[in-house]
Design goal:
By secondary structure, the protein is α+β, with helices and mostly antiparallel strands. About 35% of the residues lie in helices and about 15% in strands. The protein folds into four domains: about 70 residues, Alpha-Beta Plaits; about 70 residues, no CATH class; about 45 residues, no CATH class; about 140 residues, GIY-YIG endonuclease (3-Layer(aba) Sandwich), CATH 3.40.1440. The radius of gyration is 30 Å and the shape is extended.
Length: about 400
């Protein structure tokens, strides 16, 4: 609960539980949303109903969980809806101590986000109200909360419409999401779209891919003051924590320390490194890695194995110029930056690498390509489910 990936873990656990429930209780229909579950059945005799209740307790106990089972009811509060099977009706539900609270119209949010708040509330209340009377019975609290937040919208019941069967083909759209701030007076969106028209006109070969129909703009929200203060405090507190284990600056073997690529400081993590070749004129390359020693070993392996020639721009250059399996290269560290951690929105290591590449983009000495600016973060892959499953198989 509360973890950055808590929702994803909850979904996985929920799918496992649903599978076990379906295999054991064939006459029940189960539904699950995160950690709230609901089961529906036809008429069952009391003895069988009690056996089902005991079976549910046993199944969850085997998984290390506890469950509260209420049987024999025809009305239940599930999420924000009250479901009545006897009357075949439904109406909005809110916990007794829950008070609606919405973003104020004067907050630092994109205008479109503020505009959609009351519209979304109106749609949701209408969708979970069986009749206009159910809607009008609960709308006063929501209307009061909207008024207190400065919204002028009046809540009105909207009868549900039948969904359209015709499905439109979805276009491939590239989204540009600049952060929004009321302090910025420049119309960023207007200027960006004007650049699309200017640099990709109809006679451009890229107009088919980059035009006003395929490139859209939507502002993103910036961090609020609370998140900024918490992040700053956390950074300061972590600086004072003693290191769990100090790493040696260099772990090269004694007979190879004279050839250490960083001259006795190769055992570094989360670095942006710089490579210079021994040519005339010299060629240069910028890269990033979570562990410099592992990345250096990987680079040297690609220099000796021809089938790995295209694994990086540096190895491609070494093979094309025939610099040999052990080329004379000068390795340096440009900067340190933390790599991606679960729950973060960005990877500082990849962003810092792209910043250094961008600074030398027009320098002909550098091997880095412009396309590297559009690459996705490689470090997020370590936190995906398939990486976790591979690690589990290795441990077994």
């Amino acid at each position: 609960m509360g973890a950055p990936d808590g929702a994803e873990v909850c979904e996985l656990v929920g799918l496992l539980i649903l599978h076990k429930l379906r295999m054991k209780f064939k006459n029940l229909d189960f539904g699950l949303y995160r950690d709230d579950g609901l089961a529906v059945s036809g008429r069952i005799v009391p003895n069988q109903l009690d056996d089902i209740r005991k079976g549910l307790h046993q199944l969850f106990a085997n998984l290390g969980l506890k469950i509260t089972v209420v049987t024999g009811t025809t009305e239940v509060d599930f999420l924000d809806v009250t479901l009545d099977l006897a009357k075949e009706k439904f109406r909005p539900y809110r916990k007794p101590n829950d008070k609606p609270l919405y973003v104020n119209v004067e907050s630092n949010h994109p205008p479109n986000v503020l505009k959609q708040i009351p519209i979304g509330i109106n749609k949701r209340l209408s969708a979970i109200s069986c009749t206009p009377e159910d809607f009008n019975a609960v709308k006063s609290d929501y209307q009061r909360a909207l008024n207190e937040s400065g919204h002028k919208h009046r809540l009105r019941y909207e009868a549900p419409t039948a969904p359209k069967n015709k499905e439109k083909s979805k276009r491939k759209i590239i989204w540009f999401n600049p952060p929004f701030n009321q302090a910025v007076k420049t119309n960023i969106g207007k200027k960006f779209l004007r650049l699309i028209n200017q640099h990709f006109p109809k006679n451009s070969p890229l107009h088919r891919l980059l035009n006003r129909n395929t490139v859209k703009l939507s502002y993103s929200c910036t961090k609020n003051v609370k998140a900024i203060i918490q992040s700053h405090n956390s950074k300061l507190l972590n600086q004072n924590k003693p290191a769990a284990e100090e790493k040696k600056p260099c772990d090269c073997q004694k007979n190879r320390r004279a050839r250490c690529p960083l001259r006795g400081h190769c055992n570094q993590d989360d670095v942006i490194y710089h490579v210079t070749t021994d040519e005339n004129p010299p060629r240069k390359y910028i890269g990033s890695t979570g562990s410099f020693k592992q990345r250096y070993t990987s680079h040297m392996h690609t220099f000796r194995t021809e089938k790995l020639k295209t694994s990086s721009t540096l190895s491609h250059h070494v093979w094309d110029k025939d610099l040999g399996p052990e080329p004379n290269l000068k390795w340096e560290i440009l900067a340190n930056a933390p790599s991606y951690k679960k729950g973060n929105r960005n990877c500082d290591l990849c962003l810092t690498e792209k910043l250094h590449i961008l600074r030398n983009l027009h320098n002909q000495e550098y091997l880095n390509r412009r396309t590297e600016m559009a690459l996705r973060c490689r470090h997020k892959a370590n936190f995906r489910l398939n990486a976790f499953m591979k690690e589990r198989k290795k441990q077994k």
